Each structure stands twice: as structure tokens, then as C-alpha cells.
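subagent[fold] <- orchestrator: predict structure for attached chain, return C-alpha cells only, no commentary.
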Amino acid sequence: MLVTSPVGAKRNSTLTELSANRLSGIVLDSQATDIRSTFINTAADPQPGGVSAGAFFDANSTIGGAIAASIGATAKNGGRVGFILVAPPGLDGSARITRNSNGTSVAVSLEETLVHELTHFRNQSNQQTLLAFPDSAASIYVDPALAAARTAANSANAQAATVQVLRRFTEEITARHIHWRVRTEIGVVPVLNNSIQPAQLGIAALEYFVELSGVFAPVANGYVQEINRRGAVAQLNQVAMWLNVCAFYAFSDKPEQDGDSRQLFRLAAAWAAAEAAKSAPLADLPEAQGLAPLLRDFQ
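subagent[fold] -> orchestrator:
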């Protein structure tokens, strides 16, 4: 089992999830069977939809070409349970995150990989709440009618619904924020401390929305692609709304750290909305910070 403790944020989260029996284990994908019985002992059987706990595990015990994956399921007590799988490159330090659009990439360590996945895992219950958000919510979508239309156009593919795009944005931006904090903790990036300006996080999120949307927005849905075609005002307003959703997620087991991150996301959302209201948005900006990797890290 891959549970080590060189980084405080990862160690604390791992121990919390393990001690609560929510996390069955963190293992190499080739060794997933080592935690199968642990998972089955705590997972609901059957799972929602009728599949047995064993069949659910078996169907999710490989991760293809991914560096790692957090797998969540319904627990016997009605809560959430699951496990994290890591591919060999994620363990040996050779893993790289690659931009499919141009082939550039950035290295990612085991510590960074695990804290990213643990952020996903910590927010399993929040994921379920988020998935109930309606496409008609004007506080979540710049264009609710477009959100609903893109869901309807993908009715045969639930993973291409617009709310899934929102979920993936929220998942990836929050996890990449914790990834960034770990990078500063272990000195990978030259930041003197973890304090950043809300505008810097807002700009980093905007870069993801505009330049790295493949991380969270499948072309089949098309909502983000259409908002991007509308220009800076629509982009900023949508990013503002979704950063506010990110503030609903959990970032740390320590209340003061969790509160700091939530407040930073709320302030970044306010910055994006204020920037959208300017006559000349995005005219004078500080350097993006607060997510990892950043657009400029890909080489």
C-alpha cells in the first residue's frame, strides 16, 4: 500500500480517510486486488444501479493511461467509500501531465499525484450534491438555456451532461489548487509562501477555462467551447460563477486552512465578476498563481 508521509497535507488527509474507513487503500493499479476485500467489506452491495460491490470494484480496478484515479462508491452506511489507484510512472517519478493540443508536458511527483487524488476523494459527498444542480440555475451558468440544450443534445451519454462539465471543472480546479500548495511546500515552485492575490487565482482559473478546457470539458458537450467563442466578458462571468462553486468544496482537514482556501476562491470569483464589468477587461493583470500545473509550466 502506498501510504507515506513526506508532505503534511497528504499525510493528514490520508490518515483521516483511512481511519474513517472511507478510503480502502492507495495501491498500484497492478495490485488493486490487494484491497478488494477491504472495499467489499465497507461498500454497499449492491451499488446503486444494481451492480454488486465486487463487480463494481472489478470494473474500476484499472486506470488505462491515467497517472492515477480516485474511485468512489456508496458505502454500506449510506456514505461514501472508495480507493485510489496509481500507475507505475506516478510511483517512480517519471509521470508527466501532457497537453494533447501541442504535446508539451510537465513532471508530476508522487506527493503531488496523491494530494490531487485525495482532494477528489475528500469531496465525494460534495460531488453528489453538485450533480443535483439544475442546468436552469442562473447563478451557476452564464447561459442556462445553452446548458440545458447541451445536456439534451447528449441525453444518451450522461457523462457529457453540462453538470458533469461543471463537476469536472470544480474537481480539477480545487485539486490543482492543493497540488499548487504542495508544490510550494516542497519547494518545486519559487513562491516564498502560500499567500496569493485573488486575481492571480482568478487568472489561473481563466487560463484553464480558455486554454486547458480539455481537462474538464468534452467537445461532445460544447458548453465551454461556446462560452469561449463569446469572448472575455462571458468567460470571466462563467469562471466567477464556477469559482464560487469551488468554494463549496473541502480543501483541508484543518479548519483554518480549509477556511483560507474557501475564502480565496470566493474572492477570486468576486475579482472575475468585477473584471468582467470593466470597459476593458484583462488589460492589466498580475501573474497567474494558485493552480498546478499552470499554463506556463507546460514545456
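orchestrator: received. Logging for downstream: Residues 162-185 form the longest helix (24 residues). The chain has two domains: 8-122, 127-297.
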